[in-house]
Structure formats: structure tokens, C-alpha cells
Model the fold of this input.
Amino acid sequence: MRVGIVLFPGMNCEDETARSLATVGISAEIVRANEGSERLSAFDGYVLPGGFSYEDRIRAGVVAANHPAMEIVARQAEGGKPVIGICNGAQILLETGIVPGLRPGRVEMALALNDSGTRVGYYCDWRWVTGDLFDEPVPLPFAHAEGRFVSQDESVKREIVERGLVAARYCDADGTVVPAWPVNPNGAWENAAAIRNGEGHVVAIMPHPERANWAWQLPLDVGGHWSAAKATSNAPGPGRVFFDRFAETLRRAAA
Done:
């Protein structure tokens, strides 16, 4: 399985994403967005990493979303190839309309400026996340200014909930979803930390699993069994299972 990590100017998480993919047996290559359609089309799946593509001009992800490379990624996703977008990558997926992708060719959701009622704008911390992308509630880091999943279309929101497309939600350490600060750090609708497309093979996630792929990356006060894992040399971290799920999706798509 060969995965292309699609790099736009200003992204900065490509190397740690490649190392995280390697831990679950995925061969990843960093490929620049301007390397051409033949090169970009040759992969079995794609990752759009975190960072600040095109300096987040206009709004986060929108310039990269209109780059010809994303037309190629969109076509590959339509053909069933798995795609994940992490933080800035998630913003790009929403701006292209690939996620949630309920009605092709439409941008149905946005990632708006953080507004928890207490904090507005850029925020960087750790939060617990739950959902079927993970085996249990897990602590993950996040760092964004525009991470609040929103939509003005009530029919889109209703369909996302009915079809179970909220792939991860912010929660407390016990897994309880509390729709308020501090559990929900950015005011996201439905406490959404990740949204997937209708077929389930494209996922946009705002927290950074690659920054928690090893337990030693965890903060000292993480708590629970993760504190013991942190003391173990090279133990898998809470973000590892996210990449395991991606590897499973790749295998299914290739079967």
C-alpha cells in the first residue's frame, strides 16, 4: 500500500505523519501538489497533513482546496481510494466538498473560527476524543484557529447525524460528550472532532493523531493508563489506532 502525503506550501506536519504511517505498515511518500496528475494518481490513498497551507489566506484551507491537485485527489476519492485530512488537511477536505460529500460538487460544511463562549481564535491544548475511529476515549492534541465544524444547512446536519458521519467527538476522560467548555474546546456543532464522507473512506479530523502516535509524546499529567504507557519506551500512543483504522480502510479498498 502506497500513500501520498500531499504537500502544499505552508504545511509542516508531513514528516511526523509519514513516520506515524510507517508504524502501521504503510509506505508513505511526500509528494508536492505541483508534481502532476500522473504522479499524484499513482497512490493507493492520500493524507493531507497539518500546517498552514498558503498561510491560511482568505480562510484556512480554501486556497489549497482550489488547487488542481485537489481535483485529482477528489477523483481518486470518488473511485474509492481512502483519504484522511488532519487539521489543515481537514479544512481543505471541507472546502473542496469531499467531506461530508453528501451532494457532489457542493461545499456543505465549514470549519469556522473557534468560539467556545470563553475563548475565540487560535487555541492549542489536549482534549479527550471518542468515536468509532478509536477503541476508547483517547487524549489527543489540537492546535488551530478555525476548527469549529458548522453548517447553515439544517438538512445536511440532520443527514450527518442520521447516517452517523460524526466520526469523533470531544468528550471528558470518561467518554461523556459535554457540549460546552472546557470539554468542547472550540464550540463545534455536535462536539465534532472529525467528520467522514457517506462511504466512510474519507475522514477530516481536527486533532493531531500524529502528535500522539507514541506514548512518550503525551503530557505528564495525562492520567489513566496512559501515564503508565508514557513511562514505557516507544509504547504506542493514543493516536496510533487512528492510523491502524486508516490501514484497515486501505486494505479493504485494495481487496
About this structure: The CA atoms of residues 50 and 64 lie 12 Å apart. The chain has a mean pLDDT of 96. The longest helix spans residues 240-254. The two ends are 11 Å apart (CA to CA).
